[in-house]
Every structure is written in C-alpha cells, then in structure tokens.
Amino acid sequence: MEHDTRLEKREHPDFDLADIMTEFGFGPVTAFRKARGGRVNQNWIVKTADAEVVVRCVARERSLNDIRFEHSFINGLARSGLPYRFPRPLISRSGDAVIVKNGLYIWLYEYIEGFTRLSSTHDLLGLIATAMASIHKTAQHLTIPHSKITPLVIEDPWLLETMRSWQLQLHGSADERLRFFCDHVQECISILQGLHCARYQMLPRIPIHGDWCMANVVFVADELIGIIDFDHCCRDTAIRDITALLQYECVDAQDPFKLDISAAQFFIECYNRVSPLSREETTLIPAVAIAESADAFWWKMYEITNNRGGTITLSRIENLFRTLCWYNRNEQEITSALCE
C-alpha cells in the first residue's frame, strides 16, 4: 500500500524517476519514498514542487492488455459520479498512460491522501460493503473494450493440473513449506474435485476489483474516501469480490482460518441494501472461498520457488490449507447463515 509515510532507507527504483516525471510533464523530484507492502508491484510515492504522484511499476506477469483493462475500469468508475477516489492513470506528454523503462511497464496516478487501516471494525465493514456494492452496481453499466479473465478452479481445471505438476516437481524438497504442500496437495485436489459448481458459470459477470481488503481502502478519519490497487481486477462475479473481503477481514479472532459468521452476515446485509445478491449467488460463496484458498496455497509455492517467499512462514501455508478444509466441512452452515 502506498499510504504508509515511513521512509524506507537506501531503496531506489531500477529506473530514473527524474526521466519519468519529465515524461509526464512534472518538474524536478523533491522527495520520494518506496511504498510499503506488495511483493508483486513496486510503487514509489514521488513529490515535486507542485504535485505528489504514485509511480507504479507493474509486475512482469501483467500484460499490456491487463493494464488497459485495469485503466478502462478505473476511468469508468472515476467518471461515474461515485463518491470515492480511484487511482486514475495520468497521461504522458506523448499521450500514453503506460510507458516502458528497462523492460517494465510503468504508469502514474495522483497520490490519494489518507490512510489505510490494519484491521476492520463493525462500522468500517458497513462502509466497505456499501462502497463495494455501489461499485458493482456501477460496473454493470460500464463498457470496457478490453478483456481480462482469471478463471477460478471451480469453472476451469487449470489449477488441478498445475497442482499435480508441482507435486511432482517439489517432491523431496528440503524446504519444510514445500514439503507441507506435497504432503497435503492431494487432499486439496480431492476437495476441489468434490465441488459441484456448474451454476457458477451461469452467474452475471462484471468488472471486479479482485482484491478487497483493508490495505486497499483509503480513509480520512472514519470516512471511506478511496479504493486503490486494482492490479487483480478482472471480469468475474460479484461474489468473488465479496468472498475476498470476507476471507481477509471477517475472520475468527481465535482461529483465523475460520469465518466470523456474524461479521460476514452483517457485511452481506449492508451489501444487499445497495445491490441485492440472489440466493444462488450467496450459496456459492463457500465454494469460491475454497477455490481462492487453494489458488493461494499453490501461489505461495510459486513465490517460494521464485525467490519471492522469504517472508512466507510455514504457519501461513498451514493456515491456507486449514482454511479450505474448514470451508469444505462447514459449507452448509455458512450457506444457511449467509442466506438468512
């Protein structure tokens, strides 16, 4: 997130910030700092005499088409009249929103003044539910000339095939985190195979944010004023966004792999006041949670094996596995509670 103002010492980007600022029509750099958080993208908060912007260096996994989808989505929301600020891309002197430096895609947006919170409260959940539902309602009417689809395993078998491949690839590893994956991935695959979610493919598709959590919501005092980090946006279902928020922010205080059902019920209640979910949508939330947990379980292996997993602990890996097992065991209870 870019709203932690503490300076990270001795950190510099792999490109010339002065050149980039000139390319976008800004004056000399007076100060800069690297934004904390986010292992995929690198963001730099840069000040000039008359501006403060975020210079966003996009992960190599993202294509130019992905970025264009993201920008079209953000621009559509920014023009819609919603009472929130969005990271609207700035245009360079050459007329482009995205430039390339050292083989990396880079784009800029105006810094959104405010702060993010470390944890949610009852009142904040209500604000976020209202904001998400408002954005989803608006997104139904947006026309985006680009496509970005990242299918869940409940509608595409890609993850099952990937997990089987990685189970063979990581067999015999000395890393305890990778060994845990190998020891439990078959149970994970069996759970995924047991999901019967043909109905998911029939749900309405809209542009969604894809990563709703407290780190991506900007506040001033107790007012929600902005939503940032649309890097995971794609065209999918509203419940995929909802499930992400529930798994991040509505967790049991004692056992974080469990859902705090009371908090989840309140979130759904507030969401439904603005943009009501169908019963069909609500009943599929546990299946989406299982699919997302399984995806994260594998993705941690990818990060570890590509030297991005230095801070990923064994307990984090274990918690992801416990999460998908818990949702699988308690699917009916969760569904009944959220459909009340």
* Topology order in helix (H) and strand (E) letters: HEEEHEEHHHEEEEHHHHHH
Outline the low-pLDDT stretches. 1-10
Structural class of the helix and strand makeup?
Answer: alpha+beta
CATH architecture of the largest domain: Alpha-Beta Complex
The radius of gyration over CA amounts to 20 Å
CATH topology of the largest domain: Aminoglycoside 3'-phosphotransferase, Chain: A, domain 2
Distance between the termini: 35 Å
Strand content: 5-15%
Mean pLDDT across the residues is: 92
Q: Helicity level, as a percent range?
A: 40-55%
Notable traits:
alpha+beta, Aminoglycoside 3'-phosphotransferase, Chain: A, domain 2, 11 helices, Phosphorylase Kinase, domain 1, 340 residues, globular, 2 domains, five-stranded antiparallel β-sheet
Descriptive notes:
This protein has helices spanning 17-23, 64-79, 122-139, 158-170, 176-193, 238-249, 261-274, 279-283, 285-305, 314-329, 331-338; strands at 29-34, 42-48, 52-57, 99-101, 104-110, 206-208, 217-220, 223-227, 234-236. β1 (29-34) and β2 form a beta hairpin. It folds into 2 domains: 17-110, 2-Layer Sandwich (Phosphorylase Kinase, domain 1), CATH 3.30.200; 122-338, Aminoglycoside 3'-phosphotransferase, Chain: A, domain 2, CATH 3.90.1200. The chain starts with 16 loop residues before the first helix and ends with a helix. The chain is built from 11 helices and 9 strands. 44% of the residues lie in helices and 13% in strands. It has 340 residues and is an alpha+beta fold. The strands form 3 sheets. Strands 1-2-3-5-4 form a 5-stranded antiparallel β-sheet.
